[in-house]
Amino acid sequence: MIGIKLIPLKIVFCLTLVLILEPIVASSFGSVFAQTNGTSSEVINKVDKLPKTNNTTFSANGRISSLVYLTDVNKTSDLPSAKKNILSGDWNLKVARGLVSNFTVTFSEALDSGMRWHTHKFFNFKTGNNTMIRLTPDKSVFIPGTFDIKLNGTVVWNKIKTTAVILRANTIVLVTDKGAIGEHFRDQPIYGTVQSMKDEKGNEMK
Length: 206
What we know:
With 206 residues, this protein is an alpha+beta fold. Helix content is 22%, strand content 43%.
């Protein structure tokens, strides 16, 4: 047969193997973070259903210290070897008579290689009209609402649905609406710690 080159059997085998494994590998990437977000959702739901106290006036602040895993960049489901965005910053919260009077989250973000450094500010937090914020007996709290978000000082997202949960006055978890901000945080929660929580009289509760 003139003009037709036969493809080596080794190449055919490799191409077949890629076609077979591609959906399996893609599925494993998705399952890693489906499990992560599933765990966060379970925690959030449990806190929302806990009995509440009459403590509706308090303040809290702490640090943001989190990682966003970029498994799609170097195609791996192994989290330690995946590229990461490092998040570091602060957050502040004030609640008066069940209403959030101030809630801001500010942090820097950069690749673990030191590239793509930028800043975020979550501000202008709003809750629903009938939302009453109250601590649970173990000093946990469920705070649903919306943030406006700045990127490098410029507002790029408005009214982004976000659920914040403080757990036992020790940690904070922020879950943003993936559909509204795309893949910026890869549909992963933002984590932080609580450094202080004070009651209405300014007494430390931690």
